[in-house]
Amino acid sequence: MIHHAMLVIGLISGTSVDGIDAALVNLSGSTTDLTVELLAGATYPYPADLREQILAVCGGAALSMEALATLDDAIAHQFAQAAIAIQTGHPAAELIGSHGQTVFHRPPREERGEGRGERGVGEQGGQRKLKTQNSKLFHPSPLTPHSLGYSLQLGRGATIAHTAGITTISNFRAADIAAGGHGAPLVPAIDVALLSHQTENRCVQNIGGIGNVAYLPAKSGELGVGSRESAVSGQRSAVSPQNSLAKRRNALFKTQNSELKTQNSLPLSPPPLGWDTGPGNVLIDLAVQQFSNGTQTYDRNGAWAASGTPCSELVEQWLQQPFFQQPPPKSTGRELFSPAYLEQCLADVSDRALSHADVLATLTELTAVSIAHSYRTFLPQLPDQVLLCGGGSKNLYLKQRVQQQLGNIPVLATDDVGLNAEFKEAIAFAVLAYWRQQSIPGNLPAVTGATSAVLLGEINQASRMGAW
Asked: What angle do CA 61, 63, 65 make, to 5 degrees?
């Protein structure tokens, strides 16, 4: 089927709540032949009072249904204005894909354990062990209605469609969650289409408020088990005998390959994988705001953290938090890595002679170490290349620390391979909307844990009385 080129707007405000990222893109093709041309990208900050409201709700502040409706409308208005503004000087877009503003995310209860005790960094009496369910990585089991996840994105698509006068697709996570998935991360499907390499295994690491990874196996050839035995200097390979999860995955891939070889005489490459790796910028940003008495919202280029020295003992202690040990599929957000979580980190710091710069360096190190730990623990093998994107890719110190953790594996940005790193997530939701219009499923069950591939997003037709 031939799909005509379409101008689409992608909109998202991430867990950092910095503002609305908008991308105007020219899309053509479908999946294997998808092409993307970025015509314009911009970030539109929220009004300060609205940002504070959003952060309060993300932090668990109570509000009435009337206040929730008012907040929903205010966010939708800002998203619509961003959609209108990004088209300035360009032809009118035909479609909007809006992820909205996430204010609450609850993973499937089967994955997150019982109660809220797992939030703690230094819980009394030790950490609760999580059940390892490796088989669910590839054969997700049906969930009961009471165990389904839940995710709320504000900024309703119908209002955006009416205000901007453009059909808008929104609420992308709901269908995946209804199919037993986490509803996140959703971007790996686009990474597969745009960033897969013929011969290299790649990791695309987004570092927003939360970090998430997409593992893209090489398009050709079988999984090279053990092919990178000394990928990380001084550390065990991802396929070492001690890594039982990687061993089971490799065995599963080999079994699948063998079965398909018998049927088709063709090798099966391993499936793309993806999950949330843990905090990206969120704890760093919260600490910077606290240490600067609100005069700064983030550590520009990581300069403040770079002037300090990370405490490796604290990083190792914090890495024992159950989320880091939990096998994929998994997702997280500000519900876990919250201001309260930071306060627990700072309590751990209180008996050590650490400066503010040292604390920021340690929090930055946690992000870098958690990324590398996630790769070594849950990937079938370490990647040949890592591509960073998101706001954290601009943090030079954080990028250096990720590189340090991964040794001789090249750490680049998606910009280096032709995909804008700053607006990649906005581009992704433009693509997901475009796929929804073509009735192409947008989720990857091996990533989200859903029982099947499903169409993502609700279509909100533009009214005839649009704003322009």
From this structure: 150
Does some domain include residue 1? no
**What does the alpha-carbon distance between residue 458 and residue 70 come to, in Å, rounded to a whole number?**
21
Cα pseudo-dihedral 125, 375, 277, 99, rounded to 10? -160
Mean of the pLDDT values across residues 79-93? 98
Q: Can you tell me the distance from the alpha carbon of 287 to that of 294, in angstroms, rounded to the nearest whole number?
A: 10
Pick the closest to residue 206 from 451, 21, 436, 456 (CA basis).
Answer: 21
The sign of the dihedral angle between the CA atoms of 227, 371, 442, 332 is: positive
Spatial distance between the Cα atoms of 247 and 225, rounded to a whole number of angstroms: 9
Which amino acid, 403?
Q
- Who has greater pLDDT, 217 or 245? 217
pLDDT digits 0-9 by tens, 122-176:
333 333 333 333 333 334 445 555 589 999 999 999 999 999 999 999 999 999 9
Evaluate the omega torsion of the peptide bond into residue 241 and state whether it is cis, within 30 degrees of 0. Answer: no
pTM above threshold 0.70: yes
Does 275 reside within a domain? yes
Q: The dihedral of CA 319, 322, 325, 331: what is its sign?
A: negative
Radius of gyration of the chain (CA): 21
Question: Which tens digit of pLDDT belongs to each residue from 96-134?
Answer: 999 999 999 999 976 444 333 333 333 333 333 333 333
Answer yes or no: are the C-beta atoms of 165 and 462 closer than 8 Å: yes
CATH number at 446 reads 3.30.420.40
CA distance 284 to 361: 9
Give the C-alpha separation, 436 to 457, whole Å. 7
Q: 208: Cβ–Cβ under 8 A, 6 or more apart, which residues?
A: 14, 15, 16, 280, 281, 390, 391, 392, 425
Range of the domain at 34: 6-460
Q: At 142, which amino acid appears?
A: P
Number of domains in the chain: 1
| 84: in domain | yes
